[in-house]
Every structure is written in C-alpha cells, then in structure tokens.
Amino acid sequence: MLSRRTVSSVAIALIIAQLVVRAWLAATGNFYWDDLVLIGRASSQPILSWDYLGHSHDGHFMPAAFLVAGISTVIAPVNWVLPAITLVVMQALASLAVWRMIRVVAGRTAGIGALAALAFYLVTPMTVPAFAWWAAALNSLPMQAAMAWIVADAVLLVRSRGRRPDARLIVIRSTVIFVVALAFFEKSLFILPVAFAAAVLAVRYTGSRSPGTTATADPDATGAIGDDRATPGYADTALTRAFSAARTLWASMSIVFVIWLVVFFSVSDATAGQHSIAQTARLVWRSINDAVIPSFVGGPWEWERWVPSPPMGFPPVWMIVLGWVVLAVLVWWAVSRRRGAAGVVICTAFYVIAAQIPVMWNRSSANTALELAQTMRYLPDTAVVITIAIALIIGSPERARTATAVRHARPGADDRGLVPVVALVGALAVASATISLVSFSTSWRDDPTGDYLATAKRSLAANRDHPMFDQSLPLEVLLPVAYPNNQISHTFGRVRDRPEFAVTTDRLNVLDSAGNLVPGAVTPARKIRPGRGACDRPEITGPGRLSLDGPLIQWRWTIGVSYCANRSGQLDMSLEGGRTVRVPVQAGLHVVYVQLEGRGRAIAVRPVTAGLTLHTGEGRVGEVAEARLVG
Fold it and tell me: How far apart, in whole angstroms, are the C-alpha atoms of residue 11 and residue 13?
C-alpha cells in the first residue's frame, strides 16, 4: 500500500515533470495568428477600455484574456518571454487544481488510482495544442483550473451536507472563481452543469440513509449553508442530497450563469455566418474519432501543418481502432468492478459529445475543412471531465465485495497488485504521449512568425529615424481576413524602438517576407506627368493639379513624385473623394512618397507655407512593393 505521503510526493513529482516539459514547449514556441490579433488590438486601443476588453473576438467574449494579453503587450511588446511565463504559471495552477480535485473526489486513500488519473491529465495530447497557442491557452487553462477547483468544492459541500464550518467561504470562493473563469472564456459556463453532475455522482455512496427513510432535522446544523433539514419527507436520493446540501452554491452560480449568458449574447457575434447541421455532425464525429479516441493510447503520433494553419493530428487507422479497444476495456472494467460506473461513463460520454457541438456549429460552414477538428485545441476541458470521471470511478465502492468484506478490508490493500500493472500501462501511455508531444512540437515550430517578428523588430530599430508606411504582415504570418490587425502598425504599435508609421515619407522602405528592411518602390498603375515648368521656373505657386495618364478608382493609393522646392515647407495633397494629407517638403531636389485615399484623374496640390513654390517631375501612382520586384 502506498502511503499518503508517498502518493503526494509522486503526484508533485509528476506535476513538476509536466511543467518542465511544458516549459520547454513554451520556450521553443512563439506567437501565432490570434496572438498577433490580440497584440494588434492591445497596440491600437487603451487596454482598459470597454472597446478593447468587451470586443467579440471570433465569437468569444473574453475580457480577462484580453486584459492579460494587453498587460503583456504593454510591458514587453512582441516579446515571447512574458507570454511563455504566463503559459507555465497557468498550467501549474491547472495541474495543482486537478490534483486537488482528484484527492477530494477519489478520496485520500485512492493511492495508485489517483496517480493514474493525474497522469492521464498531465500527459494526454488533448491538452497540448491549446497550451502551446497563447491565445487558446488564455481561454482554456483558466477554465481547466476553475472546473477542477469548483468540482472539488462542490463535492466537499455535498458530502458534508453543507455543514462544514467553511461552507460559506466555499460558496463565495467558488462563485468568484466561476466569474473569473467566465471572464477568460465563455465556455466556462459548462462548469456549472459539470460540477452539479459530479456532485450527484460523488454523493451516491456516501452518507446515504436506508431506503424509505427521509431526512431529519439536525439541531447542531443551525445556520449551515444548504442544510436539508427544512424539507421534511423528501426522498433521500443522490440528486436531492447534492441539490440541498449545496443549494446556495448552485443558486449563486446559476445567477452568474444567467447574467453571463445574457451579456455574452448581447456582445458576441458567435451565431453569425453560415451553419450546417450535417457539417457540425461530421466535425463532431471527426473530433471524437480522430482526436479524443487516439488520445487514450497517447496519440496521434503524426502532426502535420499547412502554414498558416495550426498543426493537425493524423492518427493511423490502427491507432484509432486501438483507442476504441482500450476505451472499451476500461469501460468494461469500470462497469464490472465499480458500483455506479455506468452512470459516470454515460455522463462523461454525453459531455464529450455535447461540448463539441457549440464550437463546431459556429464553424460549420460548407467551406470549413474537417481537419479543423483534428487540431485538438477544443479538447482541454474534455480531458478534465474525463479525469473527473476517472476519479469518480476510483472513489466508488467495488461491486465484488460484500458488506462484511468492505468493513474488514484494509484501505489500499489492492495497491500492491495494481502497482506493477498500472506502472506498465502508464509507462507505455507516457511514452506514446511523449512521441505525440515531440511530433507536435516539431510541427508547431514549423512556422515563420517568430523569425519574422524578431527580424522585423531589429529592422525597425535600425530605421527609427525615417517614417515608413504601414503594410500588411506576410500571408504566411497573418492573412488579410484579420485586417486591420494584420498591419505592422498594429503588431509593432507598442514597440518603442521603431520609426513612426506615417502617410508621408522621403525614403520608401518596406519589410520583406522575412522581416528585413529593403528598398521599396511604387508600382506603375498610373503615371504622373511632369510639370510644365522647371526648377528655376516652378509651376506650382498656388493651388494646382498633377495630371495622371489615366483614371483611378476609389482606393488607397501610394504616390511617388520627384520635385524641387525653393524652400522647406508644407503642401496639401488630395484625390477626389478622399481626405487631404499635409506633406512636408525640403528645399532642393527630392522625392516624396504619399498615401492618399480617393479617385480621379489628377492629384490636387496646394502650398501651405507662405512663399513655397515647386516644380514636379515624373511620378507614379500604385501600390508599394519591394523595389527588386517592380523594376
């Protein structure tokens, strides 16, 4: 039999080992996709404003996640160190909360079974993709920690029938944790039904009365939160005990649940877009068959990435079949050996399926690839629920034992026989999960974002004295669908050592696809005809027009034109239908680049500085591109 101290020591060692591995995964990772959207919004808006915190991000309402991302961006903009630290810290909180939940639900004498439940959570591939992706982790890790903590608190309340001296504190802290989890991820709404179901399942074989009896008042329980003495004659079932013993907790969390649901649907656009029931069903099945099931044998081992998409797991058929076999064996063992295991299995299966439906429904357009379900980033809460199920089954009484045998059995007497079996199976599962993690890490690092950001920061620092135009990030870093957060002015907006992003400049430089600063040029969509004068006979002495060789449609155009000015000063330039831009010019012969919105056949110019006159040469109107590509 493993002593409590030994079990606790092994559990802490397992958690530390997981954190070391996760720290390595975080350290070798970098920003990706939605991370840059969070950074872009934090760089362009006040991070304490409601426009920032209350924004519906791809259907998610997540003010606390935005706040953490905003603080990180303000402190260390486009620096991966702080986000990596937040990943490891949040994972530590989640892992410790899960271990606490296991000890409470399974009982402190669970021994090797409790360690097996913890090991499953710590190594399952279902939690890996959402950990490595910062934006996803800001959603999922607080939910994992909160779910585990609140389930444990609920079980503590119902097993004590609400008569613990700290019952009121439990209600308050669980409600606060629930609110915090919701602030990170609206999917945390699932915590309430999960906690209630876990409480009902956990209390079935603890403290029950004989059939046919009813609850009686307990004079020593006066003032206890949720005590059941005030309802004479009710049937003493697990459902009534779980409800009455923690009814204050359920009431407070239900109020929060309803309020948050109303707020969510009032600010979120989660239901926007096209949806398909058939596509939702296919996505849910793919998520279960190709993601959840292989995870029972530590899979998938093969991860592929089609940049800019995230890695997707591709388990072979044999692994899927083996996963179903292992699951069937585990279910058979649980149902045949543990009382009430069938109910736990049914509730868990219901959650695994039901929890996937909302997220897959929101992404169920005909154009959604089924491989989306194989990214496995929507499964961390499923892993926690399965861990809860394992703890519930471990904590249930055995079927084979008679009442006499149970009274005389020594706690943990079966541990000696289970230790080698569980150790062998656990070692194989950990080895398989390690293969999966290494494969995922290799695929996750196959992304140009980190190198691009690092190079671009160095390039911008080297060009800090010259204003430059805004431009899009490379397509393989962030697609235009994220506009305007795919603009470098948003990504690097909080970076201090950089040039000003402006609409005029005298030196046209651009960042190439690798982040290097290279000379830019204007594509010749239209040409600007030279002025009729000369440097000693400037033609622009007042409001005038620069003629084009053809019309422009309404767009944001870049103008590059040479000029000579008699003095330094400013002039206004504009296109028809667009706003006027004030452009600084220098005395002598120079080139200026301006970005204007509008249309028309000419560019209006007007000297602002008194006595300023100019002669303009040939120019171009078009788009900005690398000079080597324009010619």
Answer: 5
Residue linked to tokens 């960042």: 511
- CA separation for the pair 624, 86 (Å, rounded): 38
Q: How many residues does the chain have?
A: 631
Kind plus residue range of the DSSP H or E element containing 195: helix 191-202
**Within its chain, how far is the Cα of 249 from the centroid?**
28
Task: State the number of CA atoms in the 13 A half-sphere of 146 facing the CB.
Answer: 27
CB 564 within 8 A of CB 614: yes
Six token digits for residue 371: 């491989």
pTM for the whole thing? 0.89
pLDDT digits (tens, 9 = 90+) for 290-344: 999 999 999 899 999 888 889 999 999 999 999 999 999 999 999 998 999 999 9
Conformational region of residue 162, where left means phi above 0, alpha means psi within -120 to 50, and beta covers everything else:
left
E strands, 391-462, in order:
none
C-alpha 69/C-alpha 449 separation (Å) is 18
Burial class, 617, CB count within 10 angstroms (exposed 0-12 / middle 13-18 / buried 19+)? middle
How confident is the model over 461-483, as pLDDT tens digits? 999 989 999 999 999 999 999 99
Residue 432 near residue 299 (C-beta atoms within 8 A): yes
The answer on pLDDT for 404 being more than 60 is no
pLDDT, tens digit, 9 for 90 and up, residues 244-253: 889 999 999 9
Which amino acid is present at 357?
A: I
